[in-house]
């Protein structure tokens, strides 16, 4: 079984649990027609006005960020490889009254499935890139999806965070995993998930890859993109270092002690030249 299939089984099993977890606030989309996911709320000052833009959300999972972007006026397509996740995404979109087109495909298939040079905005949310083995291939997909003048908006976990050993106790942060992309995956076995849930899981193996900032930015530049904005953040939208982080009033998590030690996430924007 290849890495993509192993990971798909993992996500297929977790998608229904995520959709019913209070951490994803799925019910809020039906209860409050102005509600936006906390991930999108965090980056509202950076997103700017996206009304009328044709956007695609790569690796959209259960679609809470996709629906939020649609509520801001963008004409959104969500793409994910998990049919179970897209079932939940379509249900949440219907509850929210949002018109979103959800498509099942791997990221590598996005251009052939959706068409080249079609989108004003490519959006990629937190926790997506670590599932991809080749960041330069991803960058080429992003560039090929965008029309000239279109932009990429990416908020992602910082590769320095993924290099830390999250199981070490105490205040000490220990670098134990690769910072740079490796030829083979990091293999983990974990019967839990990152949200509050009573569900139990049988597909517990995952294959992931880290990608250094230089590799991500370099891949985009090689694909012909122009970097337009980059910002590192001391917070993350979930508890990625249990025992080390505390939650703030904005539903973000940051280091309990000396949060200036390491960035947890970053926001990157890039543009496809018009020439």
Account of the protein in words:
Helix 1 (3-20) runs parallel beside helix 6. With 275 residues, this protein is α/β, with parallel strands linked by helices. It has ten helices and twelve strands. It has a seven-stranded mixed β-sheet, with helices on both faces. Helices cover 31% and strands 23% of the residues.
Q: Could you give a quick summary of the protein structure above?
A:
With 275 residues, this protein is an alpha/beta fold. Helix content is 31%, strand content 23%.
Shape: globular
Task: Give me the Rg, rounded.
Answer: 18 Å
Helix content, binned percent: 25-40%
What is the count of DSSP helices, taking H or I runs of 4+ residues?
10
Hey, roughly how much beta strand do the residues contain? 15-25%
Mean model confidence by pLDDT:
93
Give a count of the beta strands, DSSP E runs of length 2 or more.
12
| Main β-sheet, spatial strand arrangement | 3-2-1-4-5-12-8
Secondary-structure element sequence? Answer: HHHHEHEHEHEHEHEEHEEEEE
State the low-pLDDT regions, or none: none
Question: Could you say which structural class the secondary elements and strand pairing correspond to?
Answer: alpha/beta
Q: What's the story with the biggest beta sheet?
A: 7 strands, mixed
End-to-end C-alpha gap: 43 Å
């Amino acid at each position: 079984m290849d890495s993509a299939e192993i990971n798909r089984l993992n996500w297929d099993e977790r998608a229904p649990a995520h959709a019913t977890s209070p951490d994803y606030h799925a019910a809020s989309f039906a209860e409050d027609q102005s509600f936006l996911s906390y991930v999108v709320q965090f980056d509202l000052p950076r997103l700017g006005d996206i009304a009328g833009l044709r956007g695609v959300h790569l690796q959209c999972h259960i679609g809470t960020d996709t629906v939020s972007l649609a509520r801001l006026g963008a004409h959104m397509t969500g793409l994910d490889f998990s049919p179970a996740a897209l079932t939940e995404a379509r249900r949440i979109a219907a509850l929210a009254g949002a018109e979103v087109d959800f498509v099942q495909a791997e990221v590598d298939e996005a251009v052939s499935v959706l068409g080249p040079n079609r989108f004003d905005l490519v959006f990629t949310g937190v926790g997506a890139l670590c599932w991809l083995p080749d960041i330069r291939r991803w960058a080429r997909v992003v560039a090929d999806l965008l029309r000239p003048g279109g932009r990429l908006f990416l908020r992602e976990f910082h590769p320095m965070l993924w290099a830390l050993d999250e199981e070490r106790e105490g205040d000490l942060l220990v670098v134990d995993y690769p910072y740079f992309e490796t030829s083979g995956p990091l293999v983990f076995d974990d019967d839990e998930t990152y949200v509050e849930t009573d569900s139990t899981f049988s597909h517990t193996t995952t294959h992931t890859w880290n990608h250094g900032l230089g590799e991500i930015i370099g891949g985009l530049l090689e694909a012909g993109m122009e970097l337009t904005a980059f910002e590192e953040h001391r917070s993350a939208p979930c508890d990625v270092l249990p025992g080390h982080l505390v939650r703030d009033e904005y539903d973000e998590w940051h280091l309990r002690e000396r949060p200036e030690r390491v960035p947890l996430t970053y926001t990157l924007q890039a543009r496809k030249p018009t020439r």
